[in-house]
Amino acid sequence: QLELDADNTIKLVGSGSVNGLLTDLVIDHTLSSPWQIESDVGFKVVSGKPRVTLQNSWDKVFWPINKPEMFWDSGIIQLAGGLDGFNAKIAGHLEIPDLPSISVDIPVSGTFDSAVIDQATLLVADGTVTLNAKANLVEDFIEWQVEYDAQAIDLEQYGIGGIKLISNQLNVTGRSNPVEGEHNLTSDLRIELDQLPAIEVHTVASIDDQQIQFKQQGQDPMAYELEATVSEYLHNPKIKLIAEWAQISWPISPEFNLVSNN
Question: How many CA within 13 A on the CB side of residue 30?
C-alpha cells in the first residue's frame, strides 16, 4: 500500500519476475491496479561497464485516484545506456484541467556530466512547440531554444471575436551559467492577423548578481523601443526605464476592431 495522507490510501497491485545473473539481470513487472503499467528493466555488465535498459509503458494514468482530473495516455518512458552515454525518451498525451491537450515527445541523450534534448516536440492546441537544450556540468552552462509555431487559429474560441490569427511564431534562445549567476535570453515574436500588417517584436534580456537588463523593439506598424535596467535588485532596487516611439496607433487599421465576447 502507498500512504497518501491520514484518511486515504492507494492499493498498488501487480506482479513481476527476476531472471538471470548479477552481471546479466532481467526484471519484468506488471502493475494492474489502480493503473496498468508494464515495466521492463535490464542490467548487464559489458567490458566491465554497467549498462541499464528501462521501459515503462501504459495506456492511461490518471490523478487523483478517486476523482481523476489529469490524464496521461499512451505514455512511455525509455532509458538505455550507462554513465559513459545514455539515450532516453518520454512521450505521451496529457490532459490537464483548464489547459489545452498536449502531446509530448522528448528525446534526451548524454553522459554523466552532460545532456542534450534534440528536437523535443509538444503539440499544444493549434500549435507546435519545439525544444532544443544542452547542459554541461563541467563547463557549467545550459543552452536552450524554444520555438512555437501556430497557424490559422480562430480566436473566438478564446473569447475574442472578429479576429483570425493567420500565423504566430515565437523563437526564444537562452544561455545560463548557474555558478556565475549569469543568464541571457533573446526572443523574436511575429504575429500575423487576417487582413492586417504583421506585428514583430524583438527582445533581449540579461541578468547577473548585480542587475537585470531588458530591451525590446517593435517594428512597424507598432514601432517602439523599450529599455529597462534594475540594479542592486537583491538589496536596494533601483529602476531605470526608457520608452521611445515614433507612432503607435490602435486599431492597426480603420476596419479592425477588437471585440470581446465576455
Answer: 3
| Residue 218 near residue 241 (C-beta atoms within 8 A) | no
Q: Are strands 238-248 and 85-95 parallel, antiparallel or unpaired?
A: unpaired
Q: Are 211 and 229 in contact (CB under 8 A)?
A: yes
The span from the CA of 189 to the CA of 39, in Å, is 42
Cα–Cα–Cα angle for 67, 57, 116, nearest 5°? Answer: 110
* Per-position pLDDT tens, the chain of length 262: 555 554 556 778 899 999 998 889 999 999 998 899 999 999 999 888 999 999 999 999 998 887 888 999 999 999 999 988 999 999 999 998 888 889 999 999 999 889 999 999 998 867 889 999 999 988 889 999 999 887 766 666 655 556 666 778 899 999 999 888 899 999 999 888 777 778 899 999 999 988 999 999 988 777 889 999 999 887 888 899 998 887 666 555 544 444 433 3
Tell me the whole-structure pTM to 2 decimals: 0.76
Helices (H), 119-243: none
Phi, psi of 251 (to 5 degrees): -65, 165
Peptide bond into 221 cis (omega under 30): yes
Q: Is the dihedral of CA 154, 156, 160, 162 positive or negative?
A: positive
Question: Is residue 49 within 8 Å of residue 84, measured between CB atoms?
Answer: yes
